[in-house]
Write a structure and sequence with these properties.
CATH superfamily of the largest domain: Diaminopimelate Epimerase, Chain A, domain 1
Distance between the termini: 5 Å
Strand content: 35-45%
CATH class of the largest domain: Alpha Beta
Structural class: alpha+beta
Shape: globular
CATH topology of the largest domain: Diaminopimelate Epimerase, Chain A, domain 1
Radius of gyration: 18 Å
Mean pLDDT: 95
Largest sheet: 18 strands, mixed
Number of domains: 2
Number of strands: 18
Length: about 280
């Protein structure tokens, strides 16, 4: 029986037991896809990742990302948490504060900046959809690897008090071939522009505590609809309060790219036994 290095990292927080946890298995090149999926089901977190040696030229490492039910080409908080684990364990080293992550979405640029890790997201693909949920007439379907149906609820209080219909969200997700639904609302506080919530019941994740790809999708919505002019190209979003995992996501948006970033902290550091 082999032992592999294993970390559980809380992302978008500097305090343990807040933010969004990701399980990271380090040096997993001898594991098969079925083994990885079983491990992801066992950890029962929204995502579990596997750090592997890079195969793409110039990449720092390769990352595979799994929900309890399937593999993803990209996800936000697993990318940041896995980069934190790779650096902390010595599996990878930043060069001039830069990393390159190879994953299903390609080779992505990451930067380490004053204790925070930022990732340049895959370019979102967007289209308007009818979304008879949350009292809105239409929403934006945003594909960044995971696919989110994004709805603007206007006020942060509407987001905070929302009681989601999980069956309806799962049905909509299946109809639109989406991971789930992400909603956002304005706080009126320049230091914390939005509250965000993300729901993916069709993939075994009723509410994702602090969702990186969901926040990327909100930024894409703001850029696509012209609402970004109200908030500027940099803002901070808050997510996770309703599930006791309060986190902060820093967002940077330009015409060319969307970046998200935040802090991360290791809560579990040990060994995983595998057959």
């Amino acid at each position: 029986m082999k032992q592999l290095a294993f970390k559980q990292v809380d992302v978008f927080t500097a305090k343990p037991f807040l933010g969004n946890p990701v399980a990271v298995v380090i040096g997993a090149e001898n594991l098969g896809t079925d083994q990885m999926q079983r491990i992801a089901g066992w950890t029962n977190l929204s995502e579990t990742t596997f750090l592997l040696p890079a195969t793409a030229p110039g990449a720092s490492y390769r990352l595979r990302i799994f929900t309890p039910r399937r593999e993803l080409p990209f996800a936000g908080h697993p990318t940041i948490g896995s980069a934190h684990a790779a650096l902390e364990s010595g599996f990878a080293k930043a060069i001039d504060g830069k990393l390159k992550q190879e994953c299903g979405a390609g080779v992505l640029d990451l930067s380490v900046e004053e204790g925070r890790i930022f990732v340049k997201a895959p370019q979102p693909k967007t289209r308007r959809v009818d979304a008879p949920l949350f009292g809105v007439k239409s929403a934006l379907r945003v594909d960044v690897g995971p696919v989110w149906v994004v709805a603007d609820l206007g006020d942060a209080r509407a987001v905070d008090t929302l009681e989601p219909d999980m069956a309806a969200i799962a049905e909509l997700s299946q109809a639109l071939d989406a991971s789930g639904a992400t909603v956002f609302g304005r706080t009126g506080n320049a230091a914390m522009a939005f509250h965000v919530r993300s729901f993916a019941p069709a993939h075994g994740i009723p509410e994702d505590p602090v969702c990186g790809s969901g926040n990327i999708s909100v930024a894409a919505y703001l850029r696509e609809t012209g609402l970004l002019k109200e908030f500027g190209p940099r803002y901070t979003a808050r997510q996770g309060m309703q599930v006791g995992r309060d986190g902060r996501v820093q967002v940077r948006v330009s015409a060319e790219a969307i970046e998200i970033g935040g802090e991360a902290v290791t809560c579990v550091d040990g060994k995983l036994r595998v057959d």
